[in-house]
Design goal:
2 strands, mainly alpha, globular, 61% helix, 2% strand, 244 residues
């Protein structure tokens, strides 16, 4: 299956993403696609996924279809974040929020994919939350993977987890205070819950300018964190083994 290439044999969206950022920043996406996704499709006849009967002939199941769908979803969220980051128009609070949400969605889906792939057949392929007495679903898969990740880091917070905290603050918390269209950087958001640290003249004079960044700078940092995580996880858990 390694003869297939995203730039030639992917769908239109995949071809576009390959040239935009995958080729230079996340080539492992194609490697996994070649090894694991292509066999699930009807190539060279068409790009669509095989029927249950066709999958059975090659020893594949609904579990494998779930993995394929998650893998493609990772790309969809990444692409939207890339479009926002690459926009020639200014990035304001709303664009920053959407970009961060999209990157965290990338991480959420990636974590589910990683847990499902490394424990094949354990989770219900068509359930986000497992039913009582039944197999766990996607939500449990994400939680289980993050528990393993924290343990691997010595119970420390990883850079991708810091990004989720930042997302949660943007979406569920109070607005970030701003200084000349600059906002608290990732990891600094909790330091400025009290807006008076920005609005009070005396407090403002003692602000550390390094704590505040332009929205594009924050989103670029979030992008780098996300791509670093994806590359590491794909290399360690999806590409090192030959597959389940």
């Amino acid at each position: 299956m390694s003869n297939y290439r995203l730039a030639i044999d992917g769908d239109g969206f995949e071809k576009n993403c390959w040239h935009l950022f995958l080729q230079n920043e996340f080539s492992g996406y194609e490697t996994f696609w070649q090894r694991y996704i292509v066999p699930l499709t009807n190539r060279p006849d068409n790009i669509y996924l095989k029927t249950d009967q066709e999958l059975s002939k090659i020893g594949k199941t609904h579990h494998d279809l779930c993995i394929a769908q998650l893998h493609y979803t990772v790309l969809v969220h990444l692409h939207r974040a890339f479009v926002i980051l690459s926009s020639r128009d200014g990035i304001a609070r709303d664009e920053l929020t959407e970009g961060i949400v999209r990157l965290c969605s990338t991480l959420d889906v990636a974590d589910e994919l990683l847990e499902r792939f490394t424990n094949p057949g354990t989770h219900d392929p068509w359930a986000d939350r497992g039913k009582r007495g039944g197999p766990p679903g996607g939500r449990e898969a994400r939680s289980q993977w993050r528990t393993k990740r924290r343990k691997a880091l010595g119970n420390k917070t990883g850079p991708e987890e810091q990004l989720r905290y930042y997302r949660n603050h943007l979406v569920h918390g109070r607005l970030h205070p701003s200084v000349n269209n600059r906002y608290p950087d990732i990891g600094r958001e909790n330091d400025y819950f009290d807006w008076r640290k920005v609005t009070d003249r005396q407090s403002f004079a003692s602000l550390d300018p390094k704590h505040f960044k332009l929205p594009r700078q924050i989103l670029a940092s979030a992008w780098d964190r996300t791509l670093t995580y994806l590359r590491e996880m794909w290399d360690q858990h999806l590409l090192a083994p030959a597959g389940p």
